[in-house]
Design goal:
Elements lengths: L1 H4 L3 E4 L5 H6 L7 E4 L7 E3 L3 E5 L4 H6 L1 H6 L1 H8 L4 H6 L2 H6 L11 H7 L27 H7 L3 E6 L2 E6 L19 E8 L4 E8 L10 E10 L2 E10 L6 E2 L1 H7 L6 H12 L12 H21 L7
Parallel strand pairs: 1-2
Antiparallel strand pairs: 3-4, 4-7, 5-6, 5-7, 8-9, 9-10, 10-11
Helix pairs in contact: 10-11, 11-12
Bound molecules: flavin-adenine dinucleotide and iron/sulfur cluster (SF4).
């Protein structure tokens, strides 16, 4: 159906992001293709855990195996929006969720009065008028954690199935932000199981009860004694895609996790983060806060002793 209908149709899973956007006429489609049949199972296959894309965020936040083996992932899912939305929103929808911008996530009437922008109906970017691209912000909480974990998605399309690392699922473009084909469905998320990996996700937002992230850091690390053996750090809400910061992660390798190393790594991590004035609160302040969320996430991952239940 998706292949036949092309841009006239969209997939809908929980509808928590899509339905408000349809009401605001950010998307105008003739048909919705329901994804209710997607699996919501969590299967622990030893070397990897396979999570059905239909699992709700509440399910991911509360699943015993995910909480124990991938606490940072469960934390990220449990920090998305609010409890009613987590009961309906899915982990597949969270990976594919639209990018956000203060000039775009508005009613049709507001956008008409202010002037439309390139992402929908217009021809200039209202945040960066001299730019030819859209800078809408990647605002998924679970995508950075999935990337830090080295997770892979299964995509199903008319020609069958293929696997893609979550790190390869995103483009640095506020409009064309997904690297998959529009008619491909994310059917599951595969998390590599490694008991020695410690994970943490720290999110900054105005209202802890519902808001999208305005900065966030996902960390997955392994320790060898006191020293960091491997590390991945991925930032949320500071670019049009989840922003991996390999220089900061490499800096941590071989070092013990202490105040000094964490502060220096956070300084390195904040450099490529370039928040613009198109999300909540001041972008200068958000840039400063990137250091803080990275420090907290590194410390939390290193302090972790055995999952949220441990
Ligand atoms: C008030 C409010 C607060 C929110 N706060 C947050 C937040 O803090 N953090 C956050 O990350 N999100 C937040 N969201 C967005 C949303 O609730 C979540 O991202 C949720 O996980 C989306 O999942 P869904 O199943 O409802 O997706 P849907 O709304 O059904 O779909 C979202 C998009 O993904 C596509 N899609 C869905 N599933 C698939 C699939 N399996 N394969 C391919 N494409 C698919 C749809 O076509 C659509 O483009 C918020 C939303 C609202 C309204
Ligand atoms: S970044 Fe610019 S083009 Fe993109 S949604 Fe915002 S105003 Fe529109």
């Amino acid at each position: 159906m998706a292949e036949d209908l092309g841009p006239r149709a969209m997939f809908v899973a929980g509808g928590t992001d899509l339905f408000p956007k349809l009401k605001r006429r950010q998307f105008e489609v003739e048909a919705l293709i329901g994804l209710e049949s997607l699996s919501s199972e969590v299967r622990n296959g030893g070397r990897e855990t396979v999570v059905g894309a239909g699992l709700t965020l509440a399910g991911a936040a509360n699943d015993r195996h995910l909480r124990q083996s991938f606490p940072g992932y469960s934390q990220a899912a449990g920090l998305v929006s609010s409890p009613p939305l987590r009961n309906a929103g899915t982990i597949g929808g969270n990976l594919c969720v639209d990018t956000r911008c203060n000039y775009y996530d508005m009613t049709f009437e507001w956008r008409k009065a202010a002037g439309f922008c390139i992402k929908k109906d217009g021809d200039i970017c209202l945040v960066a008028p001299s730019s030819s691209r859209c800078w809408a912000v990647s605002s998924s909480d679970t995508a950075p954690m999935a990337i830090a974990l080295g997770a892979v998605v299964t995509l199903a399309g008319p020609d069958g199935e293929r696997e893609l690392p979550v790190a390869g699922l995103y483009r640095d473009d506020g409009i064309d932000y997904l690297a998959k084909q529009p008619f491909e469905v994310v059917t599951d998320l595969r998390l590599p199981s490694d008991k020695s990996t410690r994970t943490a996700y720290v999110k900054l937002r105005r209202r802890g009860s519902i808001d999208f992230p305005i900065a966030g850091a996902a960390v997955a690390m392994r320790l060898d004694g006191d020293a960091v053996a491997s590390c991945r750090i991925v930032l949320s809400a500071v670019a049009s895609h989840p922003l991996e910061v390999p220089d900061a992660a490499e800096f941590m390798v071989g070092k013990s996790v202490d105040e000094e190393s964490v502060r220096a790594a956070a300084e390195i991590a904040a450099k490529p983060a370039k928040p613009l004035d198109n999300a909540d609160l001041s972008h200068f302040w958000r840039k400063k806060m990137v250091r803080l969320v990275v420090e907290q996430a590194l410390q939390a991952a290193s302090d972790q002793t055995g999952g949220l239940d441990g």
